[in-house]
Amino acid sequence: MKIQTNRLNLRKFTLQDVERIYEITREKFILKWMPDWGMTREKISDLLNWYISCYADPPNMRTMLAVELIETSEMIGMIGCGHKPEVDDEIEMAYFISENYAGKGYMTEAASAFSKWVLENKKIDYLMAIVEPDNIPSEKIIKKCGFKKIRTINIVNSGETEPKEFLYYRLYR
Reduced to 3 states, what is the DSSP secondary structure of residue 22? Predict the structure, then answer.
C-alpha cells in the first residue's frame, strides 16, 4: 500500500525506519505535543513491528505510514489512524513531522491524501482528530483538510497523567 501526492510518498513502515523515527521523536517539537513518543529505540522497534503486523489485517483500523519526500526518499514524519481508547474508541488520525520540514505544507498534503484514503477504504462514517488548543499548526492542518470542530473535550491523553483540554474535530465521508 502506498499513497502518493505531488511531493510525498505515504508508505508502509519497515524495520529500517526505526533509526529515523527515533531521531525525529527526539525533537522538542514532537515531544511537546506527543510525549508518549519519548521512548527508547527498542520500544520504537517494537511499535514499528506492531504497525507492520497490522498491514496483514486489512479490516484492522490501525494503519500507520511513513511520510517521505519523493525527491530524496527521506522520511520526514508519519501519519496514521487507529482506535483512540480515550475518545470512545473512535478512529483518530494522528501525525507528526520533523521540525526541519514543518511549515512547508508537507503535513497538510499528507493529511489530506491520507484522510481521503481512510474514508474511501475503511468502513467508517467519519475520522476524528484531537488537537491541543495551543497547537495552532496542527489545528491549521486539520482545518485545511476539511475537518470541522465539534466540541472541546477533556481527556487523559496517551503519555499524560492528568486530563487536558483538546479540540475535537471530525471529517465525514
Answer: helix
Contacts of residue 41, Cβ cutoff 8 Å, sequence gap at least 6? 18, 19, 22
CATH 3.40.630.30 fits 2-172, yes or no: yes
Which sign, positive or negative, has the C-alpha torsion 2, 170, 156, 29? Answer: positive
Helix (H, G, I), strand (E, B) or coil at 87: helix
CA dihedral sign, ordered 81, 83, 85, 87: positive
Residues pairing with 92 in the sheet: 82, 128
Distance CA 132, CA 144 (A): 17
pLDDT tens track for 46-75 = 999 999 999 998 778 999 999 999 999 999
Place of cell 522538542: 28
